[in-house]
Amino acid sequence: MAEVADERRSVLRRALRILDTFKDAPAHLTLSELSRRSGVPLTTTHRIVTELHHWGALERDDSGGYRIGLRLWEVAAHAPRSVGLQRIALPFMQDLYETTHHGVHLAVREQDEVVFVERFVSPETARDERPRVGGRYAMHATAVGLVLLAHAPADLQEDVISGPLVSFTSRTYSNERELRQVLADVRRSGYAVSDRQINPDYVSVAAPIHGADGTVVAALSLIVPHTESHGPNLAHLVQATARGISRALGAPPKRPYRHGSSGMRKGG
Question: 16-33, pLDDT tens digit by residue?
Fold first, then answer.
């Protein structure tokens, strides 16, 4: 029985590794690409992919490549931390987009990473513009990440601040002392700015979204080309939109800073 249980766990782990290969990958992957990216033998990949395809987790296109299936999206859409938040936030995000004509993004914290759960962008840039829904990013290098890190539990803040701070551009915060000061600024000002820290072409401005208990449950950001103005007016627009979402979530009118949520100022 123990051997059977171990075999089942091994198959599940391999299936998850195969699904994980679709992160930051082309929309379609061949069977051999799935095998190579996941490190799962080709014959085993074929067997697992066939099962995933039958269930609907993967779909196959005319060229024989595989992509994430609608069934998997349907299941993921029921994630309790995102479904209600997305539904409430989307009208506010659309208003901010129509006011600024720049991409608007919504993110939450998952352990020590930022996960983007919704965005509102123009149809012309939707295919190419990042971050994409479901994308994960480092907290210290994005505006939403700085917001969420500034309001995260103290022990997680220390782990991130004292851990390796990967540099994505020459502007990425990579100094522990500087990052501590930035996080303090975010808590004081109520917003974060990421000036080309993860993408050399863009600046992002983010503000925290509070839940019914007053803690920060998400962050909202506006992404603009670095060649355009990104002064206090943009920050105030993002903050006003985030406050509107917070009120719709039932947040109390006055929200003193509390450790143990997610939110911040200079990030992406």
Answer: 999 888 876 667 899 999
Tokens 């599940």 -> residue:
12
How far is C-alpha 191 from the geometric centre of its chain's CA atoms?
17
Burial of 163 (0-12, 13-18, 19+ CB in 10 A): exposed
Q: Give the tens place of pLDDT for each residue, 187-222.
A: 999 999 988 888 878 889 999 999 988 999 999 999
Question: pLDDT band at 266, cuts 50/70/90?
Answer: very low
Contact between residue 81 and residue 111 where contact means Cβ atoms under 8 Å apart: no
In the DSSP assignment, the letter for residue 17 is: H
- Looking at the chain, list the stretches that DSSP marks H as alpha helix, in order from N- to C-terminal side: 2-20, 31-38, 42-55, 70-76, 80-100, 143-150, 154-162, 176-189, 232-248
| Distance of alpha carbon 197 from alpha carbon 76, whole angstroms | 30
Distance CA 214, CA 74 (A): 30
Rounded Cα–Cα distance for residues 32 and 5 (Å): 28
Q: Give the helix/strand (H/E) hosting 97.
A: helix 80-100
Q: Which residues pair with 263 in a beta bridge?
A: none
pLDDT band at 115 (very low <50, low <70, confident <90, very high): confident
Q: Which domains does the chain have, with CATH numbers?
A: 2-75 (1.10.10.10), 80-248 (3.30.450.40)
Nearest to 106 by CA among 114, 179, 98: 114
Q: Which residues pair with 84 in a beta bridge?
A: none
**The whole model's pTM is what?**
0.68
| pLDDT bracket for residue 130 (50, 70, 90) | low
